[in-house]
Structures are given as C-alpha cells and as structure tokens.
Amino acid sequence: MSCILNIETSTDVCSVAISNDADCIFSLDDHSGPNHAVKLGEFVDEALSFIDNHAIPLDYVSVSSGPGSYTGLRIGVSMAKGICYGRSVKLIGIPTLEILCVPVLLQEKVVEENALLVPMLDARRMEVYAQVFDRALRTVRPLQADIVDENTYKEYLDKGPVYFFGNGAAKCMEVINHPNAHLIENVEPLAKYMYPLAEKHIAMNQFEDVAYFVPNYLKDFVAKQPKKLL
Fold first, then answer.
1. Where are the beta strands (DSSP E) in the chain?
2. Of 35, 40, 63, 206, which one has the greatest count of Cβ atoms within 10 A?
3. 72 vs 35: CA distance, rounded Å
4. If we measure between CA atoms, which residue out of 27, 120, 16 comes closest to residue 68?
5. Is the Cα torsion angle 118, 121, 125, 127 positive or negative in sign?
6. CB–CB of 44/30 below 8 Å?
7. What are the phi and psi torsion angles at 220 (to 5°)?
8. What DSSP character marks residue 207?
9. β-strands 3-8, 90-94 pairing
C-alpha cells in the first residue's frame, strides 16, 4: 500500500488529507469560504509534519484536477507540484466530479444498484457542469455544460433512479419534476474522499507529468462549449 497526500481545492472548500495503507489517517477541512491562499499552506505544513513525525514515507500526492474554480485549482495544483518536486514523489490528478461521487457511494443503503449518479458544479443561472456515472464510476455521459430544464436528464430518468448532488444540484431539482429524480444534499468534494480513487490510479499506473500537468479549469472548459451553452 501507499502513503498519499490528498489536496482538494476545486470549490470554496479547502481540504487536505493523508491516507496510508488504504485508510485515512489525517484530515483537515475549511468551509469558511475561498481562503485557499491562506489555509492550504497551513494545512499542508500540518500534514507533512504529521507524516514526518510518524516516520511515514510519502509516496504520492493526489490533487483535484477539476473542473472547478480557476483560483482554487491553480493554488492546489501549484502546491501539489511543489511537494512532488521537493520530495521526489509522483503526482495523481483526480477529477472533481468523481470525488463528489465517493461519499454518495458510501451510502449504500440509499443508492440502488441500477442507479445513475449525476454530480453537479454550479454555474450561472440554470447552468451546471455535470457528468453521468453508473455505480462503478463508469462514464455514461461525459462532462458537459448543461442548461437545466425538465427534459435535460429525461432519457436517464425514464430508465431508473438518478441521484443529483453537488453545489449545483439543489437549484436543478426545482425544475426536474420526475419520480426517479433524487437529491442528496450536503455533498462536497473533500480530500478525505480522494484516496480510493488515487489508489485506483496507482494500480493502473496512471500518473501526471509534474512539469506539464494543467487542471481542467472551468474557464477553459466553457471556452470549448458550443455558443448556445454560453
């Protein structure tokens, strides 16, 4: 197994966690607003001190790769790269929407086997950035910008239960009127949920080039969308 320092800064929440032997052994979260420039350095210092004081060798750094806030992702990725260079460890990029799915999948009594998961990040008005997954986190529909109305996810809702969550989900439930639509509240992308995904990347030998890795900034994602979505 491996010791992984996990960094999540894609939204207003700033969080850091350490996992070792597939178990979370250290976690810090700040929910007071976009304070990443101040909080992340403090959290990382505490995390690295914890690792060093317990004589645990750091093997990898995982960081949220977006989509998300330009400033938040930039700060998180810059910090992750610095640690990778300084400690000569490998970098793992974890998509934000996959991170959102982890706490939902841990609620096994809530989500049926045939359910689909739709994590959402809020955008302006009735727009969200969303992806559709099955319970195995296989992509059913790739990430895209959605202007949400009652028909946006109808093709999936007509087939079975669909769970919506993330900071863009609540407003969508106001217009999605379908018996198979379910809202899970208070789901946030946090570092303590990253390590199962990071372990999967390690098993598959999927690492980022520290020098050239760039996260999926929302501003860049928006620029690639058809004009009707902007």
1. 3-8, 14-20, 24-30, 60-64, 90-94, 116-122, 127-133, 139-147, 162-165, 181-183
2. 63
3. 9
4. 120
5. negative
6. no
7. -75, -35
8. -
9. unpaired
The single-letter code of the amino acid at 213 is F
Residue in 230, 222, 189, 219 with CA at minimum distance from that of residue 16? 189
**Gap between the Cα atoms of 33 and 177, Å rounded:** 32
Report residue 51: phi and psi, to 5°: -60, -50
Q: What is the pTM of this model?
A: 0.92
Q: What is the pLDDT of residues 145-189, one digit of tens each?
A: 999 999 999 999 999 999 999 999 999 998 999 999 999 999 999
In terms of Cβ atoms closer than 10 Å to its own Cβ (0-12, 13-18, 19+), residue 63 is buried
- Tens digit of pLDDT for each residue in 106-147? 886 668 889 999 999 998 888 999 999 999 999 999 999 999
- Taking the C-alpha atoms of residue 114 and residue 98, their distance in angstroms, rounded to an integer, is 18
Task: State how far the Cα of 65 lies from the Cα of 59, in Å rounded to an integer.
Answer: 19
